[in-house]
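quick one, two chains, predict together pls
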Amino acid sequence: MLAFATKRFGLALLVAVTVSALAFLLLRASGDVAIALAGEGARAEDIESIRRIYGLDRPLLVQYFDWLWKMVHGDFGESLYFKTEVWPLVMEKLPTTMLLAVFSLTFALAVSIPLGILAAVYPNSWIDRLCLALAVVGQAMPNFFFALILIMVLAVSLHWLPVSGSESWAHFVMPTITLGYYIAPVFMRLVRAGMIEVLASDYVRTARAKGLSQTSIILKHALRNALVPIVALSAVQLGLLLGGSVVIETIFALDGAGFLAYQSITHKDLPVTQALLTLLSILYVGLILIADIANAWLDPRIRVG
Amino acid sequence: MTESYAPPLLEVVGPTSGALLRRRIFTHKGLLIGSTLLTIVLLLALLAPLIAPHDPYAQDLTQRMIPPLWSEKGTWAHVLGTDNLGRDYLSRVIYGARISLLIGFAVMVISGLIGAALGLAAGYFGGRTDMVVTFFITIRLAMPVILVALAVVAMVGGSLWVVVLVLGLLKWDRFAVVMRAATQQVRSLDYVTAAAATGASTPRIIVGEVLPNVLPQLIVVASVEAASAILLEAALSFLGLGVQPPLPSWGLMIAEAKAYMFFSFWLIAIPGTALALLVLAINMVGDGIRDVSAPSGRG
């Protein structure tokens, strides 16, 4: 187990370093940073002096290692737009985004697990068909369009929830639903498929033969095994939610890292954009690592193979 | 080609595999509904200049914000009303189909070529090639698509082709993952070994033996990716970092209407519904192809 974990950790580290280099190169290759820094209509000599001050005239590789070295020591530089240090700025906003991601995942699981079980217990019934239809329609719905519909119904017409902002728990409700409904179908299909497989297995037949009640079989015997793949998928989806939060936080003006990313991108605030891109990628790599290790712990076969 | 290989006895005993396939296609409701819807959108896009009642770019400031026909103040002159610059909304929605379809198709082709090549190579050669490709896939998955796309478009400047290129270069991961797994399965089958034994070259085996047998999976991923590219373009344009005005991208139309959403929600509802219907149609066709090509693998 320890050997497996160490190997996976090494790989994750390699991935993280590569991603940070790629994020660096990508943003540098997309445009001239000095021009972006100087702003529109800057004179040529101003751009040149900015190039020198920020060390942008050095070779790209030197710049990257300089940036990596500082980043490892917690120095992400200074924001060009917010005029503060990047690290505290990002750390202030990240909890909101993580909270939103966890809420959305919980919402998605709370919807998809019961529906998935129902669909598996009564395959090809009207419940199964309804769940399938919901999943198909849900995945076709653009999430920003769905967000605007929610605002019109829940905030503007019914006055149940605030339109935007992040002052209270109520501000999290609509963003949570918008982010959560989109990933729910993936979970529902997995729960349904897993449950159908498990319900046909020998030990469930044995449990039936022993005369256990249907509820006990489904909840105690079948569900536990059908949920194993959900653990891995949850970690992956949590990572995707971090990225998806950019659109949703922007619509609802929820003051998290996603909204910060949008603001930094539109204001060409490169240090912030770069820090967020790198951090979110590393966070994703970390989540995958946890999922891998959790999976290996739950299912010993993975460790060997 | 299949007919020449089929023993004549089969045709006497029962329907041919082709007939069975045709029967599966024409009894699959989702596939029929989805492909009908997709065909309609395709025709609208192709024949836009003939169908659209007005020029989608023509502004008329005396005819601003006319509501659609079904509301009290609607007129037959503008069936879906007009936007804040007095442009005919129906014409813009029809021309918008061109942008969405173009994005979906172009991104699908670019990312499909990259992903399928990587996945086929990894699955067929295994070993070191597989390790390198798997590493590429892991790296790609670690970078949030929407964030990278937004950042690059902001730096390079938004345009239709920038969006196509950025999304095409980002979205190959699922192609690679699925093609890799499918190729690994097919690779060890007898007919591939047989082809190798007869002395067929590696490219010939991959193109002639492996590719045709992983094609159903490839088509299903392609449909998923086309749909997802269309949604991503809409999201990028909605955030102002995608297709630029005055192009009638559905995502951009929603963004432009956002300022008026409290009083004129139909300005958002119409392009939003168009977007959802197109994606729904593509997904239904994809699901349908999966069911029809592998009838036992459902559920």
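The two ends of chain A are 12 Å apart (CA to CA).
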